[in-house]
Write the structure tokens for this entry.
Amino acid sequence: MQYRPPVSSPLQHTAHPDHVVVNIGPSHPATHGTIQIIAEIDGETVVHADVHCGYLHRGFEKEAEHHTYHNIIPYTDRLNYCSAMNNNFAYAAAVEQALGLEITPRCIWLRTLLSEYNRIADHCTCIAASAMEMGGMTAFLYLMTVRDYIFEHMNHLSGARLTYSYVRIGGLARDLPDGWLVRLEEILTFTERYLERIHGMLDRNRIFIGRTRDVAVMTPEHALNWGYTGPILRSTGLRMDLRKDNPYLAYRELDFEVPVGIKGDNYDRYYVRMREIDESISMVRQCMERLPGGPINVDDPRVVLPEKELVYNEIESLIHHFKLVTDGVQVPAGEVYSAHEAPNGELGFYLVSDGSGRPYKLHVRAPSFVHMGGMHTLLEGHQVSDIVPTFGSMNMVGGECDR
Amino acid sequence: MSTLYESITAGLHGLYQRAWDSHGMLVLDLLPGQLLDVVQKLKDDHGFALFLDVTAIDYPERTPRFEVVYHFLCPAQMQRVRLKLGVDEHAAELPTLTGSYGAARYMEREVHDMYGIRFAGNADLRPILLYEGFEGHPLRKDYAMEHEQPIVPYRK
């Protein structure tokens, strides 16, 4: 079978005759995800770059229109699969806003705790992968150790290492298992110890600085123009964080800082993420201290699935269970845009309901996808080898980018 | 409604059809011809520096069939605004916003992929999540969910 690229690049025809057009990806150790870069290079300098995504497209938005609100939750796990909790909660928040539902205090604090906990894992993954791509194998292994402790711990909570599906509309799947918070404190202490080592290995490392300092610099105006949000926008010095500026969940009551960079280069993006992990650890501890008791689910049989025991022994619960599983949660007609500060930036869910048990339309404002839109501006003018750390610092996640 | 919303509705007076509040967000209904003026004013006069999102909704039984939805964010005041425009199936075309926001480039490509709405002036409307040769627009309601067009044939 003859190979035909999914999307042809005009660079094949428009490139200067003295330049070479090279293809990198979609499956290449340097691409940090399933993405393809077609680059026109002059010697070692990238003159034009054409970034192609879509290799992991699986029709999330189309699927969502054919599933009940609860059945969509496992699909949201697979958006940014390094921080499934954040996706879960952002999605649930949109549906709950459309329903006009107020979740319980314990649920609010638990969701905040888990969002921050998962953010630590996501940032560790990002920094680990970037370090490995630059040859820093030890930093990679240390951070992966931390990440794996967190994943095993999440597994204890939800039964899955990555795809948690832990949220329910109006609450959570189950309460914390016994001893979970004790182990959490152990892991936080362990994480802090390992982060010190990462600082020691990377912060003043000649090779690391050489490959990240002053590479892919951007101004706040440039970042806003290309729609960047999250750590990438903050690395330029702009203090914009939805947790601070537009507080949702329990963030209004937490004490935390928003770390920013100085000039928006790869090094700043690394450092902002490292500092965000520190802040997240502190926030998780605050949540542990202030975690209130009480139920985790709202008391509303139109939304929350009844206890299994009641389903088998009580006719009302059986009816509620049957209606919720077959017809789904009935969301009043209307539209909602709800955004959370995911580890990568603003993760927004735009939900249009026609009053039935399935969304009429569910659109995801995926930060990774938007970030890829301006990617070429950061690659052009730099060397081919700079593609690797620049891509790493942007933390493109295929599942979220391509949906 | 906050003061920013009042200043927007006052500053854009006559440039929109209807202004309303949806879950605390200001929504402006526009005609396609009003889009560029409104966006320029939102950016220059009201500080909406961040182009968040563009997508469409398909209502096969309505005329115009599509509703294109834009979201913008004003970082200084952390306020969002939503613009909605009706677009007809037979003249599914809107002006591009790439002149004001670089981020529009990729997102308009996605809407073009998924709904077949063209953005006049966007120089690059190649497929982005789909591939060349893909027939139809998958997020239109008349595209059946079971319909598959694998680029590489399935193994027997």
Chain B touches chain A through 38 residues (CB under 8 Å). Helices of chain B lie at 3-11, 35-46, 104-115. The longest strand of chain B covers residues 50-58.
